[in-house]
Amino acid sequence: MPVILATDFIVFFLAGAIVYFAIAVRKDGAAASAWREIRKNRLAMACLAVLALYFSVALLDSIRYRDPVLREDGVQARTEKGEAIYSAQSLSLLDRAFEGMRANHEKTYSAPFAKHLFVKENVELPDGTTGREYAPLKHPGAHWLGTDKVGDDVLFNAMKGVRTAVVIGAGTTLIIVPFAIFFGVVAGYFGGVLDDIVQYIYTTLASIPGVLLIVAFMLLFGTSGYQGGLISEGRLSLGVFVWNDRLFWLALILGITSWTDLCRLIRGETLKLRELEYVQASRAFGVSRPGIIYRHIVPNVMHLVLITFVLQFSALVLAEAILSYIGIGVGPQMGSWGNMINNSRLELSMDPVVWWNLTASFIFMFGLVLPANIFGDAVRDALDPRLRYR
Amino acid sequence: MGPVIKIKDLRAYFKTPKGLAKAVDGVSFEIPKGGTFALVGESGCGKSVTALSIIQLVPEPAGYIAGGEIVLNGRDIVPLDEREKRGIRGNKISMIFQEPMTSLNPVFTIGDQLMETIVLHQAKRKGAARKAAIEMLAKVHLPEPERLFDEYPHRLSGGQRQRVMIAMALACKPDLLIADEPTTALDVTIQEEILRLIKEMKESTGTAVLLITHNMALVYRNADMVGVMYAGKLVEAAPTQELFRNPMHPYTIKLLRSIPGQEKRGKALDTIPGAVPSAVSYPAGCHFSGRCPREMEGCASIEPPLVERAEGHSVACHLHDPGFMNKPHSKPLRQEPDALPPLAVPPSERETILEVRGLKTWYPIRKGVLKRTVGHVKAVDGIDLSIKKGSTLALVGESGCGKTTAGKSIIQLIKPTNGEVLYKGADIATLGERRLKPFRSALQIIFQDPYSSLNPRLTVRETIEEGLRAVKPGMGKEERAEKVRSVLERVGLGPEAMSRYPHEFSGGQRQRIGIARALAVDPEFIVCDEAVSALDVSVQAQILNLLKSIQRDFGLSFLFITHDLGVVEYIADEVAVMHDGRIVERGTTADIFSAPKHDYTKKLLSAVPKIDSRLADLWHLPGLGAVK
């Protein structure tokens, strides 16, 4: 039985957008010529490959279903009314593909590729006495990035964090960009009262401490949401769609609190563009205002959107970590780099230091943000006719 | 006594992704004490890089001085170390720049900035430096120097700031003052005051001046010696009177003949085909080969040296080298006719196409929380104009006089506050955007800045089609493409331009695209808002010729908004002089220029530097006789 979360739609939307562009590139047009430009840039193509890898992990982790519960004789269990009973746990394709990693629990910390636990514990020695030893692992050498406090595989946890990061980054951006472009362009182009209103809204939003707003919002909406792990009876829907998804609320509120910066930039740029002569020439033809905005203003502010998106992406992933720390981020059962970084605070104060949790989350985050930066730059350059044909 | 500064075979190169750009490729000249040497040429020919090389400020690391000597008072300053060079800059050689609005730091007072140089180079104490600074402010004729000393730059006008810059530059009594386009950003009446000041300061301190400009008339009035630069080289150098009486290099002659003026009315202006070669790929021989109207077979491969051919008059051209002319490679490749084609004047029609009555455009000044209107900026304050079909009315005035606002108010880009704009008898000033639509195609505008007037993200075809889509929605795709092709051809661009983006074109070509955009919708009246002001003189000539010919072919009426009176004398039938939002004088071009009545008009006309119009008769390309 499939389970679809609200945040899955963000991932599916991204997948749809990728398919759309792939089709657009096949036809000859602006997209095709931009793609030819990007293809010339080898570094950008390498980054695209890395991004594709990340995205496929996120996509695999977004397709999940619950297994039917089987009776001892192998027949599917049913309720008295004859409805099929499904497991409370919904496993994604990613979980199933890396079943070994997911299920290979140890007792507690172990270093990467270790054969023994990281801490001594009481073990029964061959001579029958009890001594303190580094106990051997159940799956020696299987944990490439070690295990965490509760013995889960760190590499698998980091992979589970990919979807969270992609959803936070992309979901928040999907909220920010339309808001910021709409309000920024309206304020900048029309000016007057509309400008005053938009400025009033974003000044107000910006003057409320963001964390406070997010906490209040999450306590209002997010506490009862799905936090990963089991789909339980009661407050949560047992159906196919799970709308009340805590990660979705998080992306929403992060979007609401962070569109103001981009909006301010776009407003300023629009104020400048509005007075440029090609806009005036357009007005002299009697082109309608929506027409001018669509043809002359929006394409010329897109570079701001792209730069802001790329810069904000890493900030959003970090915001998720901070919010997890104060207990309103994603739930502890949902893999996230924020949670991993959070846990490593205590681990770094241990002696010897448990470094692999932090390292793993760092490498994964770095591996996403850097290629996203480089690829973003390449896209921006490819879309800018001034930089072409040089 | 030797010259103050002697430049010998100076070369300044830049490393660029496309190759080595030879911005300055062997320039030699010298300036005596108290002399003024003017370096003229079009943009990109290496004038400014020459100046920066002399003051040892070529932008590193991309640029460097590749060779030559800069001998200041007998000592070559090129090999000096950075510490010694700092001692020379601002002290022995100082510089003033084009843009007075940005060359002073807005967060320091005038006094602080002026004292900085004095303290640095003259090792004076603060008190003494203050005294010297105030003295300098008085010397450049700034009012109340004591009070100005503690003012911030934003309190000063452009002209006053340029005076402060001059005071700073001359505070240490330098041996050489480099003035890089010192008046280009200033109004013509202020321009004259600044030049007079430079002259006066030069006479009192004995400083030599290197004047860099693109304005030939300015050179004629203010320089002792002139050097003409083209593509990194000095092609001709002579005492000013000699150069204007007897220009020898075909480039100099062409340049002089492309300057618009009264004496050229009814004739086409001279133009130079093609574009200045890129600094990374000069021709092996003469850099002007390929564009020269008198090119010979050997020109592209044999470089002409700069040789003195008359008293103090050097020229780098094979035409004046008897040795070269005797050899077979002097066979002419091209022989452009010397005489310029006449430009048929359209028959003057009596029909008035556009009339403006009592036009006012006021901007409210709002203050306070409730934004109450406390007053108005009267940008245009009641003007009357009338333009006849097929004729050109010039609206002249200094910056800030409201001429651009007036132009935009007439074609309803800015809604006027009051007054009537009658287009063929219909008042369009009161119409809303929807009812204005039928008039939009008839009234068009061409802008000044060829860079900001085209959307960088649209192809030329999309740009030109935009107007057609808006005013003729019923037009088919094929028909539209055909129209775009035909207007592009009319302005001298091929159909291959359609799919290209604006940045692939030069400034002059962009201006042609801007003209094509306006022409595409079949207008009857075009506002040319400083349409040729940002262009180099030879490109300006091409655009003026183009405007004249489309006016003749389509019977267009132009409202020509400009501050350049030479252009007005050349192109306009009638002139309206604007000052502080009002029109102070109106009349035919001949009347206004020969007998101005209003004081402001007189002041404006007398401030414009002009080349003696009789000299124009002397500017002829060397004919076959000279070739021999």
Structure description:
The complex is a heterodimer of chains A (390) and B (628). Chain A is elongated and about 95 Å long. The longest helix of chain A has 37 residues, at 154-190. Chain A is built from 13 helices and six strands. Chain A folds into two domains: 2-104 and 143-383, MetI-like fold (Orthogonal Bundle); 105-142, no CATH class. Chain A is α+β, with helices and mostly antiparallel strands and 390 residues long. The relative contact order of chain A is 0.13. Chain A is 61% helix and 9% strand. With 628 residues, chain B is α/β, with parallel strands linked by helices. The longest helix of chain B has 18 residues, at 188-205. The chains are: A alpha+beta (390), B alpha/beta (628). At the A-B interface, helix 10 and helix 11 of A face helix 13, strand 18, helix 14 and helix 16 of B.
Strand proportion of chain A, as a percent range, falls in 5-15%
Largest sheet of chain B: 8 strands, mixed
Rounded mean pLDDT score of chain B: 89
Measure the end-to-end span of chain B.
42 Å
The quaternary state of the protein chains shown equals heterodimer
Instruction: Please state the overall shape of chain A, judged from the principal axes of the Cα atoms.
Output: elongated
CATH homologous superfamily name of the largest domain in chain A?
A: MetI-like
Poorly predicted regions of chain A: none
CATH-scheme architecture of the largest domain in chain A:
Orthogonal Bundle
Measure the end-to-end span of chain A.
55 Å
Q: Could you list the spans of chain B in which at least 5 consecutive residues all have pLDDT below 50?
A: 624-628
Please identify the top-level CATH class of the largest domain in chain A: Mainly Alpha
Order of helices and strands of chain A: EHHHEEHHEEHHHEHHHHH
Helical percentage of chain B = 25-40%
Biggest β-sheet strands, sense, barrel of chain A: 4 strands, mixed
Strand order of the biggest β-sheet of chain A: 3-2-1-6
